[in-house]
Amino acid sequence: MKQGDIIIYACVIIGAGIGLMLDQAFPGVLVGLGLGYLIKMGLFKDKEN
């Protein structure tokens, strides 16, 4: 598993946890997924093909 994927999964889990606290788990997962991709692109911008 790549390090960038771990960042995405962590953001999804954190988003789901926050979403569950607000009784909206699925939107929390989607927000976490989007933030995970943005963080991954920001951190690994130089390592793209």
From TrEMBL:
<keyword id="KW-0472">Membrane</keyword>
<protein>
    <recommendedName>
        <fullName>Molecular chaperone DnaJ</fullName>
    </recommendedName>
</protein>
<feature type="transmembrane region" description="Helical">
    <location>
        <begin position="6"/>
        <end position="39"/>
    </location>
</feature>
<keyword id="KW-1133">Transmembrane helix</keyword>
<keyword id="KW-0812">Transmembrane</keyword>
